[in-house]
Amino acid sequence: MNGNADNGASKPTTTGTSPPAVRVSKADSVDNGGDTDGGSRTLHEDEPDERTRLLAGHHGVSGQPPLDIDDPAVTPLNLWSIRFLRYFALLLFAVACGAWLILLVTTFVNPPGMHSRGGGWFAFACSTLAIGVLALLLFSFTVPSRAAQIVQIVMAVLLLVDMILVLSVPDLRSEEGWIGITTSVFVLSVTIFAVIVDRTVEWGKKGEEERLTGRTETRRSLKELLSVFSSITVTIVFLLIAVLFTGTLSLRAYDHSLKTPGRRIWVDDHSYQVHLYCTSRHDTNNTRENVTVFLEAGERAVGGGMLDWAHDAYVNGTIGRLCYWDRPGYGFSDVAPSPLSAGMVADALSEALAKIGEAGPFILVSHGVGSIYSRIFAARHDKNIKGLLLIDPLHEDYLPTLASPSRGFLLWFRGVISPLGIETLIPALFRSRTREDRIFGRSSASNPRLISAKLQESLAANTFTKAEITTSRETLERKIPLVVVTSGENVKTDERWSRWQKGMTKVTDNLISWDIVSKAPHRVWETPEGWNMLSKRIKQLVDIAIGKKKA
């Protein structure tokens, strides 16, 4: 027996042979200088990160087959950073929608601190554009487009120019106020944010495709092609809107360089400014200068034609002193806070006259709808009113038509699209319309401030204004001399207008004359017959006021 035996079994001989290869187990990972971690990890697998943690089963890692490029799991939304940007875009979209709703309300009624002296249409347009940019971003979030990014960058440059214009031009800055400035900054920030998000999603999409499929996809599915085409098309539309914004703001900035003929006076506790012009007193011995002829415009500012014949009468000595103003939103005046009735406008005029020391006495000359305002003013200052000249005046029975919903909606819609400048840019570029024409001439109807004023007028016409004019009819001094000059064309074509004109002759009991000027339009002074008749009647009223003639 061999005494070297161990329990009857001999040890195998290994001399001359290599030891068998030792396979290191994937579970035998080394930690901190050789200590194992208990076999809970593999050598080839990294810690889960923002990519792998969101994927059930850890697709795409070593040892797993690659995914198909059309697999829904191949998406940039696997990344936490991309998901955060999407949630943030949703938050911005909600904020933009909330701001849009508030600005929508302010186009009709101004909450405290939300009054824009320029009408607020630019701010509303900026918030609408911001909603569009964010909606498009969310719609095509996972399908980035390099072409759309380039268009958005150009758009951002234009919006930057718009913001600089609003901030650098004093009159634009005062008209738009903090609301216009904030919305212009917001829409610019949103556009830049959309470009950054699109670039980031493009990077994340490429990374996820490489990691999960082993390649970057160069083709696009039909759904993606439609999404990209839609995105580019809508972005180009947004770019055109930004171009129009820039053109309109530039034109507004240029128009503000026109010198104001009179003074701009703060009224309503410094809420807004109105423009008021009065000629100087030259000869204290001239009795005609003791009476001031005051002009109240109709559907267009006084400078849009009405002033021409009155200034001619002033130059030839028929009128001793001449004053006129621009109602809130007209000509050189700011838009007043809403709601705004004719009585509130009359109060603003009273305040402005008092601040420059104009106490009258006055002969009030008004045209069209301006007769409503002048009659209310006369009823509140009847001791200083020496005569009324009403030119084709608007009867109070017409107020319900003025307040019709269809007219109000049309005015609101024109205000909404006014920042595009469609009605102002084309005449300015191709018809050589001037600054004067846009402020108080033919093109003033598309001025955003005038649109706001007419919308305010429409909203209050059948409520506050109707009650105020009814009261004024009862309280107006009955002995005030009255002259009514009527358009012959309107009388022939509209029976109601003819009946209403006859009713206007009973505003006071002291009718001097009612003249129907044949072939004269609503703006009676535009015909030689109308011009001469107005000159004759204003001379007659001045003579009565200074005692040269009896009423």
TrEMBL record:
Organism for this UniProt entry: Drechslerella dactyloides (Nematode-trapping fungus)
Residue ranges, compositional bias (Polar residues): 1-18
Entry-linked Gene3D superfamilies: alpha/beta hydrolase (3.40.50.1820)
Listed InterPro entries: AB_hydrolase_fold (IPR029058), DUF2417 (IPR019431)
Transmembrane segments: 87-109, 121-141, 153-172, 178-197, 225-245
Family annotation (Pfam families): DUF2417
Region (Disordered): 1-48
Coiled coil regions in record: none
This protein's name: AB hydrolase-1 domain-containing protein
Alphabetic keyword roster: Membrane, Transmembrane, Transmembrane helix
Keyword Isomerase: no
Domain of life: Eukaryota
